Amino acid sequence: MTDRCIIIGASHAAAQLVPSLRQEGWQGEIVIVGDEPHLPYHRPPLSKAFLSGEKTAEELPIRPAAFYDKNEATFYHGYVRAIDRVKKSVLLENGDVLSYDKLVLCTGARVRKINVPGAELGGVHYLRNIADVEGIQAHIATGKNAVIIGGGYIGLETAASLTKQGMQVVVLEMAERILQRVTPPEVSSFYARIHAEEGVEIKTNVQVTQITGEQTVQSVLCDDGQTFPADVVIVGVGVIPNAELAEQAGLEVNNGIRVNAQCVTTDPNIFAAGDCTNHFNDMYDCQLRLESVPNANEQAKVAAATLCGNPKTYNSLPWFWSDQYDLKLQIAGLSRGFDHMVVRGDQDKGRSFAAFYYKEGRLIAADCVNRPKEFMLSKKMITQRSMLAPELLCDESVTVKALIEQLR
Amino acid sequence: MGHITFIEYDGTQHDVDLEAGKSLMQIAMDNGVPGVDADCGGECACGTCHVILEANWFPETGEVVDDEKQMLAMTPEQAETSRLACQVHTTNEMDGMVVRLPEFQM
Question: Could you tell me the end-to-end alpha-carbon distance of chain B, in angstroms, rounded to an integer?
Fold first, then answer.
């Protein structure tokens, strides 16, 4: 009997696991269990090019069906109800039991729901998968009102995509500024300015108390008495890792499924990759749960190697990107805990700058808006633990090329 | 159908079908060619699908836009004929093209 590897979750990590498992020498079966009626597809464009209609659903799959056929990976459409670690099997939605030799959990994350009266009305949407976006697209029309709850990256990308299509957009943020959780005030105010220039109304310090309407949404009420008319409401207030299956199976879970640097859970036959994991990051010396495609890809590669008996250690610099209007934001590293910031360019004017974050004299992160060179430089500096002085980075008379030369 | 040859840094060759209209990055992904990371899925955001074209094929692949130019300029293994594979849109004229992969992606 051949060995069987079951992958639970059919998104970015799964799409990388298939080639990586084969490249690392896995000769057994590969079965992917996923609950969406699609091949694994690119999620980042959902709030960007897919929502704005520049990309179609046909352009979203990460790899075509023929790729999985060729690599003898089969899909099972449905849910996994439970994992039996003693028998090494999973219980599927339809009652079938499928045994495994190795199991990889790529269960991802789900959207955090809001709990206010009216949250169940028609026209209230979240944004995580193709079906969500198709639901939102049904409401898109010039001059219609969209209210976005949550001023994080998803909310702001959605605002940009809908404004582009002629909608009137309001963003409601509970905190005192947008992007508060992920950037300092300078970057928040930059994005607030750009959205204002593009015609998006941003309201901060407001809490949504009620969504009104008969069958479908009509307006959104806030705690300060303001009311906003709405033809559609999109909620982007964060995600929760899908770790319940792992927890019920007795694996260690703490804000995600705990994995070691080789992507192994507390069961040596069970691995995990992607948004559902919580791992230790050597570069930042802390536990991390990342919501990130590059992380899912990298962990999938590490898990595949380890699973095949060629243990690999995960040690990648986290990075992210966000497209809004003509702005390409590229984020290298994690800025939390920085003690000094310098800016190259001027975030108060124009549409291009880079903010560099230092901690104890070392660069730990950078937010680069329309500054791909600075982004590449930052990735390199952080990885090399470079002590290059902040005064050099913010001096535009020194070229980025000259700075990177100093690293070699 | 035509074909494209990807050559890994260690010399391993991958002859794959040319599906004109797809990006060079997508063709590499479709065929599981190792060495093209394509972290961002083709948004010209990450610089991890760096490829080096054989010189005679370079002019066939069209103009290099500014974003791509800037990312490439910072890549240690940049060559005269470097491209980001996600920005190369394939045509039937690219039948037989040879594409080399760098040792590392950024």
Answer: 32
DSSP B73-106: HT-TT--TTEEEGGG-B--GGGTT-EEEPPS---
- The angle, 0 to 180 degrees and rounded to 10, between the axes of the packed helices A372-383 and B66-73 is 30
B37, B41, B47: residue with CB nearest A42: B41
Q: Would you say the pTM of this structure is higher than 0.90?
A: yes
Q: Is the pLDDT of residue A1 over 70?
A: no
The CATH code of domain B3-100 reads 3.10.20.30
Contact A321 B43 (CB under 8 A): yes
For A307, how many CA atoms within 13 A lie in the half-sphere containing its CB? 36
How far off is chain A from B59, nearest CA to CA, in Å?
24
Query: What pLDDT shows up at residue A260?
Result: 97
The structural domains of chain A, with segments of one domain joined by +, span 4-110+240-307, 124-235, 326-405
- Binned at pLDDT 50, 70 and 90, residue A408 comes out as low
Q: 3-state class of B61 per DSSP?
A: helix
Contact assessment for residue A299 and residue A313, using Cβ atoms and an 8 Å cutoff = no
Residues of B with Cβ-Cβ distance to A22 under 8 angstroms: 32
Which residues, in sequence order, are bridge partners of residue A32? A7, A75
CATH of domain A124-235: 3.50.50.60
CATH of domain A326-405: 3.30.390.30
Query: How far apart are alpha carbons A204 and A223 in whole angstroms?
Result: 12
ipTM: 0.88
Asked whether the beta carbons of residue A321 and residue B40 sit closer than 8 angstroms, the reply is yes
Which chain B residue lies closest to A408 (C-alpha atoms)? B76
Residue B67: closest CA among A327, A366, A344, A334: A327
Domain positions in chain B are 3-100
Cβ(B18)–Cβ(B3) under 8 Å?
yes
Q: What is the CATH number of domain A4-110+240-307?
A: 3.50.50.60
